[in-house]
Design brief:
Layout lengths: L14 H12 L9 E3 L2 H8 L4 E10 L5 E9 L10 E2 L3 E3 L13
Antiparallel strand pairs: 1-5, 2-3, 3-4
């Protein structure tokens, strides 16, 4: 990667586009499969507040119950994973820990 990461990169998208993306995903899964997950603020801040961390990267995974998961890892300005630091998964899955119906989680 030629660029240095700063942590100030723009990742914003509109609600309409986000709703389109999540609807596309929901059409590929059965109703009882995971639509998303919740990570607590303290865990995310611990990840982001690691020395040298400018953001985080996610990796897709499959857990011991064959369920889809996201693994989060801090990233430094050279775009390298901070694998010796804090790693997150164990999100609270939706369904079960979901928001009220909205454009991101229902049609």
């Amino acid at each position: 990667m030629a660029e240095t990461l700063t942590g100030r990169e723009d990742h914003n998208i509109s609600l309409a586009l986000a709703a389109e993306y999540t609807a596309n995903y929901r059409r590929t899964i059965s109703p009882d499969e995971k639509k998303g997950g919740y990570f607590g603020k303290d865990a995310l801040l611990e990840l982001l507040n690691q020395e040298g961390c400018v953001g985080f990267r996610y990796y897709y995974g499959i857990d011991e119950k064959r369920k889809k998961v996201l693994v989060l890892v801090g990233v430094n300005s050279e775009a390298n994973d901070l694998v010796d630091g804090r790693l997150l998964e164990r999100s609270w899955p939706c369904p079960h820990c979901c928001s009220v119906d909205n454009p991101l989680n229902s049609d």
